[in-house]
Amino acid sequence: MGLPAKNKGAILSKIATNDQHGENSEYFDGWKAYDKDPFHLSRNPHGIIQMGLAENQLCLDLIKDWVMENPEASICTLEGVHQFSDIANFQDYHGLKKFRQAIAHFMGKARGGKVTFDPERVVMSGGATGANETIMFCLADPGDVFLIPSPYYAAFDRDLRWRTGVEIIPVPCSSSNNFKLTVEAVDWAYKKAQESNKKVKGLILTNPSNPLGTMLDKDTLTNLVRFVTRKNIHLVVDEIYAATVFAGGDFVSVAEVVNDVDISEVNVDLIHIVYSLSKDMGLPGFRVGIVYSYNDSVVSCARKMSSFGLVSSQTQLMLASMLSDDRFVENFLMESSRRLGIRHKVFTTGLKKADISCLTSNAGLFAWMDLRHLLRDRNSFESEIELWHIIIDKVKLNVSPGSSFRCTEPGWFRVCFANMDDDTLHVALGRIQDFVSKNNNKIVEKASENDQVIQNNNAKKQNWRQSNLRLSFRRLYEDGLSSPGIMSPHSPLLRA
Amino acid sequence: MKQLSTKVTSNAHGQDSSYFLGWEEYEKNPYNEIKNPNGIIQMGLAENQLCFDLIETWLAKNPDAAGLKKDGQSIFKELALFQDYHGLPEFKKALAEFMEEIRGNRVTFDPSKIVLAAGSTSANETLMFCLAEPGDAFLLPTPYYPGFDRDLKWRTGAEIVPIHCSSSNGFQITESALQQAYQQAQKLDLKVKGVLVTNPSNPLGTMLTRREINLLVDFISSKNIHLISDEIYSGTVFGFEQFVSVMDVLKDKNLENSEVSKRVHVVYSLSKDLGLPGFRVGAIYSNDEMVVSAATKMSSFGLVSSQTQYLLSALLSDKKFTSTYLNENQKRLKIRQKQLVSGLEAAGVTCLKSNAGLFCWVDMRHLLDTNTFEAELQLWKKIVYEVKLNISPGSSCHCTEPGWFRVCFANMSEDTLHLAMKRFKQYVESTDSKRMISKSSHERIKSLRKRTVSNWVFRVSWTDRVPDER
């Protein structure tokens, strides 16, 4: 009845019909499986526990209390409604002055008061999603390249490339040095890109890192700043996890480096920060993204572009008030760090009981879990996906496989721990421990029968438990698990 | 190597246009009844400030919605975490019903075909990303909203080719103008992907006639292209005539589930009808699944704040409120528009007859020294700097005839409007008297006659428009 699909494609743009939005990646498949069978402590205790969503739900009670205690910060309450018409009418893309000041102030506090931020450089955007896309539109033309250390946040493929036409080239980091980013690695990637006649416009990185949860040390960051200055390319640092630092970690913002380094060694026109309140404060629904640039032209351009994703004035007003409340902010930052630290400890300790270790980290809302010893084949991403399916299907946890973050080594998984209550976390840990021990017991009985198999594996001989564990997974593979591919039927996302 | 992108250095954002420069001047010297009574009065901003009291009253009566509660329970946490780009279901449902109500419930809107965006600014840009490649063109009737240059072209790389409309027929879209624009695009080697209209029109304040919409639907059908109908002002219709949406026409032509209907997209927003531009609530409505799917993903770049979605879902679900609001809004807009029109008439200045929008399209051609855009700009500067009124010159709206200005009336108090009219009248009278002194009596009569003739001609041409076919 309608036009054939091919014709239909010509009627819409390439952007609308390609899959450069990246939503067909495994990253979203896990979500889809969870959507079909979501865990609930009482209503669906056997459902899948969502550990693939980097949300911070630990301190919303503090924010809620503040909102209740400060009705004048809302334009809807009796105490605040006198502001309604002015605020409802306010669409100036500079944003409320009070809001910009409060954001600049909060950004400074979230970095331990080591740096101050200029409210005039604070530009709004539709979440960090909008901020990252906007900064690309400002710094690069279609076909230009940005380097990005991998593993990286999966949705960057959409945010940085989809509508901008910018290309991203990964700078692979490996477990051999704990996934640390080095200037040498960046330089190597830069040279390689240049050799292929690609126009490298800059380097973009997330610090603290998603998915690693680690932070750059001051020396490396300083050297990166020097590097981009020498090469005259941009440095964009997404500091969305700046205030998720716990257990004594020391976050060094690129703003601190800009302050401290010799003026001859840094061209500040090349330095840009992306920020958001979605992780530090746990308010992703409010869509507060920030572009902060030391380059005046970029500030000006990004501000014009912010028309495409301004923060709701209702939200600006509320946050302007909240983030100006020093007492609240100081207590919040301290308490958030404390709760995250506890959560992280409980989680990683629980994993250790199941002989699972994580990359050492002290920031972020997740752990970078090492499951390489459980892979059927340590060098195969297919194995990783098989293992991932087992985790979803049998252990009933949605975690994110390293390949969805473009990790170059199979076997790593990002597991989120701050998007659930304590009880759910214990259930999750219990499931992991149960599963691991159950399968170990089975294997102890059949160990002799499977000696040959064990010998054929790449098992570490000194760790019989690990080899048996892998064997247990192998057993599961043989139990007729579905082949790698989309596990869930068409999700609502695809039907949208 | 060029350090920044071409978007930074180009001026395709259009902000160097006089439309925005007038704003800048206003920002430097804004009128305030008490603090700055000699400041510039802002009449270049199409805002609706007439009905906030209705919303404020509603808030007072609805503490749950106001306090982010549902059935007495706080849903703060749920809202704080809600970032699903499908939007809050109850909000989309309420929005769909509100759009239906505005159209007299003659047509239905399916909430699942609504994509939320950060204002219609974002909605329009998103549609361009979905429908056009860089270098593709959309045809737009002139005059058009100056912000379209930024929204449709800047980051998308799309082009706008104007459909020239003229005062000879009240700026209506004609078939020949459409064809001419299409051919012009072809001459420029641009692939036409669609037509975009604003209905009711900004800056004209008029509604598209059924004839025009039929023409457009037939046109896009034959050319196999898209039609975007930006109906952001649909709730500001205050005349006797009913608003005819493109959805009405599709229904009446029995095209509702046709292939053509998949290429018709409606853009909406709450910035004008409800006067809430600060909340950034825009929407795309499309019958094409792929467009809805792609646009939904793109909305990640500009989602509507969850607390705002929640508040508005409660507000718009209250049918008693919405019907009272729409009625009252129309009444107040009508009165206010009349005040502007009569104030201008007292200065011997007429407007294009209109019954929608938050502005009038004012004919100041007789006040120009010469029939040129330079003269228009000169007149505009005088009005901004001497008369201290910020109004928008027609050239900033890409009008092809010099001398037309858009003047807003719904973004100020009655007193301020009266003051603005007083200032304007004084200016015109002083200009008239200057003209009287400098010209010979022969020329004096000629210029008087010219003004009268143009009014007469205008009134004759107007009868072509009214009444309209149902």
From TrEMBL, chain A:
The pathway it acts in is:
Alkene biosynthesis; ethylene biosynthesis via S-adenosyl-L-methionine; ethylene from S-adenosyl-L-methionine: step 1/2
MF (Gene Ontology): 1-aminocyclopropane-1-carboxylate synthase activity; pyridoxal phosphate binding; transaminase activity
Q: Which CDD domains match?
A: AAT_like
What's the top EC group for this one? lyase
Q: What is its EC number?
A: 4.4.1.14
Cofactor(s) needed: pyridoxal 5'-phosphate
Q: Which UniProt keywords apply?
A: Ethylene biosynthesis, Fruit ripening, Lyase, Pyridoxal phosphate, S-adenosyl-L-methionine
UniProt xrefs under InterPro entries: Aminotransferase_I/II_large, Ethylene_sulfur-biosynth, NHTrfase_class1_PyrdxlP-BS, PyrdxlP-dep_Trfase, PyrdxlP-dep_Trfase_major, PyrdxlP-dep_Trfase_small
A Pfam family: Aminotran_1_2
Catalysis: reaction(s): S-adenosyl-L-methionine = 1-aminocyclopropane-1-carboxylate + S-methyl-5'-thioadenosine + H(+)
Give the GO biological process terms.
ethylene biosynthetic process; fruit ripening; response to water deprivation
Tell me where in this chain the Aminotransferase class I/classII large domain is found.
49-432
Q: Give the protein family.
A: Belongs to the class-I pyridoxal-phosphate-dependent aminotransferase family.
Query: Which protein is depicted?
Result: 1-aminocyclopropane-1-carboxylate synthase
- The protein's organism comes out as Arabidopsis lyrata subsp. lyrata (Lyre-leaved rock-cress)
Automatic annotation (TrEMBL), chain B:
Looking at the record, the residues that make up the Aminotransferase class I/classII large domain are 41-423
**Record's keyword annotation contains Membrane:** no
Report which reactions are catalysed by this protein.
S-adenosyl-L-methionine = 1-aminocyclopropane-1-carboxylate + S-methyl-5'-thioadenosine + H(+)
- Tell me the GO BP annotations in alphabetical order: ethylene biosynthetic process; fruit ripening; regulation of translation
Q: Which pathway does the protein contribute to?
A: Alkene biosynthesis; ethylene biosynthesis via S-adenosyl-L-methionine; ethylene from S-adenosyl-L-methionine: step 1/2
Q: Does the keyword S-adenosyl-L-methionine apply?
A: yes
A GO molecular function annotation here is:
pyridoxal phosphate binding
Tell me which domain of life the UniProt entry assigns to the organism this sequence originates from. Eukaryota
Cofactor(s) needed, names only, are: pyridoxal 5'-phosphate
Report what the protein is called. Answer: 1-aminocyclopropane-1-carboxylate synthase
Q: What is its EC number?
A: 4.4.1.14
Membership in a protein family: Belongs to the class-I pyridoxal-phosphate-dependent aminotransferase family.
CDD domains referenced in this protein's UniProt entry, alphabetically: AAT_like (cd00609)
